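WARN no homologs supplied; continuing
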Amino acid sequence: MFANAGPIVGREAELGALEAALNGLAEGRAGFLSFEGEPGIGKTRLAAELAAEVRADGGRVLSGWCDD
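OK structure emitted
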């Protein structure tokens, strides 16, 4: 979906927080990650970047979405 989108910009803090949460999951702590916010703020791109990292590390990603 975002294969040619270039580097993610301005979301370092959010991506870092999500990566920290993933580290906790990898250590065996139960949990899940959820994204919410106004349209157009980059939720899908952030989720895609995170999913790509998980897959690159050999993990599985389950994703879904809902309409209003």
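The CA atoms of residues 15 and 50 lie 7 Å apart.
OK
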